[in-house]
Amino acid sequence: MKLKHFTFLFFTLCLFFSCKQNEVSKTTVKQHLLVDLNKLNNEILHFQKLINTNASSNQIVEQFTKSRLFYKKVEWAIEYFVPETARFMNGPALDEMELEENRSFEPHGFQVIEEMIYPEYKIEDKENVIRELNIFQSNIKQLQSTFEVIAISDDYVLDAIQQNVFRVITLGITGFDSPILQSSIPEAGESLISISEPLQIINENSKTSDELKNLTSKAKLYCKKNNNFNSFDRAFFITEYLNPISKKIKAFQKEQSIKNVNKIKPLKQNIETLFDKNAFDVNAFVLSKDYNFTADKAKLGEKLFYDTSLSKNNDRSCASCHHPEKAFTDGLKTNVSLTGSNLARNTPTLTYASLQNAQFWDMRQLDLEKQSVDVIQNKDEMHGSMDDIHAKILLNDEYINLFKKAYPRTTKPEAWQIQNAIASYVRSLNSFDSRFDEYMRGNKNALNVEEIQGMNLFMGKAKCATCHFTPLFNGTVPPSYSKSEHEVIGTPQDASGKKLSADQGRYLYNKMPQLVGAFKTPTVRNVAVTAPYMHNGVFKTLEEVVDFYNKGGGQGLGYEVENQTLPFDELKLTKNEEKALVAFMKTLTDKKYQ
Is the pTM of this model over 0.85? Predict the structure, then answer.
């Protein structure tokens, strides 16, 4: 009996300590992340050593490429949890501007280093590279300190890695963060492998987790076998790998009963892919909950949109310059003022305007509410008065009833509600039902061979998608969509192409030299029906637009545009490639305009 008792006790103790050991040895997502950050730090240390010992240019470029691959393993967490640091580790090599305070910060990180070492590293850049690497290492230390103290719950992990898939689609495979070296394709594969690892940690026995691991491994292998940036088939990669990976992440979340992160975001929490019809939430771009979109507000706003009494002389409405059949543009180079003179700028489309963080070509207003007031009160456009309009509405029974339905908590129409209603109508103009959308949702017959080639060019060799981000195809930066970008492209003054446009764009409102000639990056959706193009309507056709970009913008044409943000090298597109690019852009037309 004593022997049996001892054996049982021994077995129980072994089992107990074995379980305890397993509990202790089980790696958490945070621990895994800190290990990967340490590996990245080691790569940067080796990079510094190569620079200090005057290694060859090939060795330095090779180590740079290797360091970026290690960064891609942790990018999902850095970009999500500490975006302000991420900007100075792998952001564009352009000044970061704080327009409210009228100041700017010089860029740092991989893209800055890339310009110093590629296509050839020169010894005279040694001190600058060392300086950048020291700053990079300091940022790693800051990240390590941050991740050691913050809580990283499963719901945030799922949200972060889902965003990382969207980052690969919109920024990764387009070359956004590797504009010179063009190492984006192998990096995309590394980035995808990194998102399956946290799920394995959350539940290593999950069948869905195993399926996702297998799928990301195949995606990485595809990137390895097809690593040429210009010839990479992005249409195939997104539909066959990235969208299925995105769906698997959502399936894992449901399987593990992991809740959604509770916050309003431009991308809705319940979507399976970036290309779901209702993926975007217009309420993420409003001032407060009081301004949230409703169908009743949009119905009221539509009536106001077509009401000529909003103008001083009762002869012009919003629709006078934004024609529904032209995707809410007017087909003119620039519109005509109330006095008969030409306005300075082209009328932009209102479709998808609600999915931006700034309005007008010069981005002078941050939201649609202020945009409508700006136009109504502009003496050249409508010359109306919000006070007069409000007074008229208070005397109109039909309007009063519509306002009561749209704003049931108020006893009578208020001035801010007029702006909000018009803005709500504009927020209803996002269809996401083009042939491109159908293709991305699984209809392989929606696009032909030439159009698919054009899509691959748009997201690759032609570099369009590095400014017109998929799938909004405007300058609202994914995957957080918290900022809308401007660009300086050097647009010609007129069709002769002899001189640069004199319009100073954003500089008129923010006197910073980087903003001279800067204009908002508009959407390319419905572009087939919104000609002419550019802020001044200088180009009549899409073929002219593509030719302009193919030549390298203003600098490519020989203009002095020192602050041009558009790469000025020729794209070297063939005539067939230019034709395919135009064919693709025409697939972005919503059904109602086809």
Answer: yes
